[in-house]
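Need a sequence for this fold. Nothing fancy.
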């Protein structure tokens, strides 16, 4: 499991304890609104909205809250107008980073992200600086229960590209971006219990970090994630188990 995946595991544990629940709600609802604005309010014809609704379900967001977000996106209710922007840069230890944002004020968000990078040992780069180091993929969490062979067989039948075993966290099924919803539907039909479904950016190579660089990098990522305009942070780092354990305590 990569360092980034371990960091994601810690985030999920914090969310389960309620430490980041408010932020999670806000980010998911914002994604639902933007998805509905860009592709319409019918999930049957809007793949991005289907993914956002799956995230909302996993986060236990109330149905009426989701419905209001969709109506704001389609213009049936008044709401903020968000735009998508992705920032690229380097963190401590030369780690490449992609920061996906949804914002109603691009100048504010750019200033905030640049400031955070500067304060925590990173450097914000120009467009295209690191994006070429990542590949967009679909990622589906399969909850613990079945064996790896069972998940692998059903994932192959469903058209997935790869399966990763995350131990007591379950499995991660990876797909081509366009196949995310189709594969998830087939896995559910095959009897697997699914968790998070999302698009993500996977690094084509990784950088090993430790010591002060590791501490600084995780702090940078935490602060970025705390920003209201930041939706996702992707990075290409690796951490040893012992380093991750010492930093997560």
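Here you go.
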């Amino acid at each position: 499991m990569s360092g980034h995946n371990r960091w994601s595991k810690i985030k999920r544990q914090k969310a389960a304890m309620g430490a980041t629940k408010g932020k999670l709600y806000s980010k998911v609802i914002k994604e639902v609104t933007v998805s509905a604005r860009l592709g319409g309010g019918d999930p049957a014809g809007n793949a991005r909205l289907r993914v956002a609704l799956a995230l909302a379900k996993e986060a236990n967001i109330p149905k009426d809250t989701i419905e209001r977000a969709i109506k704001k996106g389609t213009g049936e209710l008044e709401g903020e107008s968000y735009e998508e922007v992705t920032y690229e840069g380097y963190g401590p230890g030369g780690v490449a980073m992609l920061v996906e944002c949804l914002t109603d004020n691009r100048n504010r968000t750019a200033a905030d992200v640049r400031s955070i990078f500067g304060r925590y040992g990173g450097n914000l780069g120009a467009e295209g600086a690191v994006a070429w180091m990542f590949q967009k993929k679909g990622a589906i969490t399969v909850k613990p229960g079945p064996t790896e062979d069972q998940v692998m067989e059903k994932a192959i039948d469903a058209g997935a590209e790869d399966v990763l075993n995350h131990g007591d966290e379950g499995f991660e099924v990876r797909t081509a971006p366009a196949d995310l919803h189709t594969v998830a539907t087939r896995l559910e039909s095959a009897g697997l219990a699914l968790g998070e479904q999302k698009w993500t950016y996977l690094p084509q190579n990784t950088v090993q970090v430790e010591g002060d660089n590791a501490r600084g990098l995780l702090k940078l990522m935490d602060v970025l994630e705390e920003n209201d305009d930041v939706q996702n942070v992707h990075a290409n780092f690796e951490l040893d188990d012992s380093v991750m354990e010492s930093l997560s305590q």
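For context: Strands lie at 83-91, 95-103, 123-124, 134-142, 162-165, 171-175, 194-203, 207-208, 230-235, 237-238.
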